[in-house]
Design brief:
Shape: globular
Number of strands: 6
Helix content: 25-40%
Distance between the termini: 24 Å
Largest sheet: 6 strands, mixed
């Protein structure tokens, strides 16, 4: 069975924990409590297979606290990760600037491919789901951007996340196949 480690990162109060719980079908959180450091959610998804091979997949979703005071922990969190989901609150203008730093630290410094990254513009309940054009600066404008609103259309974000997980698993599988071939030759 293939395993993949996915990081959920982004500014404080962007909705990372709420989305992590929803996407992994974990418990609901009714009040806001900032994540201290990291929370690791493990889940399986039998529908996700690698390149049509009939193997299920196990995932570790690392829900990382957005407070900069945890920056000294980031290298340990990044170790052996296969993908990064950057989540930001689309209704807070400062978050657009902040996600550039998250991209630089968690994607560029790890030498991850853009396909291993997903941007989620999260809209909190009651904020209205303004899916207008967000002006993302390069290189963020090359990334897959998904809007999420768990009140209006929760299944849309679930389907986009499953597509993303399939890409990650294919990448992990291809990497493992290359590694096995290098051992054989």
């Amino acid at each position: 069975m293939l395993k993949a480690k996915i990081l959920f990162v982004g500014p404080s109060e962007s909705g990372k924990t709420v989305l992590a719980n929803f996407l992994t079908e974990s418990s609901d959180i009714t009040e806001y409590n900032p994540t201290q450091g990291v929370r690791i959610l493990e889940f399986e998804n039998p529908q996700i297979t690698s390149n049509n091979k009939a193997t299920g997949c196990e995932f570790e979703l690392w829900d990382c606290g957005g407070d900069p005071k945890f920056e000294s922990c980031w290298p340990a969190l990044m170790k052996d990760s296969h993908g990064v989901v950057i989540i930001f609150n689309a209704d807070i203008p400062g978050h657009l600037k902040e996600i550039e730093m998250w991209y630089s630290c968690f994607v560029q410094q790890q030498f991850l491919q853009d396909a291993q990254c997903l941007l989620i513009a999260h809209h909190k309940p009651g904020s209205g789901s303004n899916k207008g054009n967000l002006s993302l600066s390069p290189p963020l404008n090359k990334l897959k951007l998904v809007h999420s609103n768990l009140e209006d259309d929760p299944e849309e974000i679930r389907m986009e996340f499953i597509k993303y997980l399939k890409n990650i698993i294919n990448s992990v599988s291809e990497s493992r196949d290359r590694e096995e071939m290098s051992i054989i030759t």
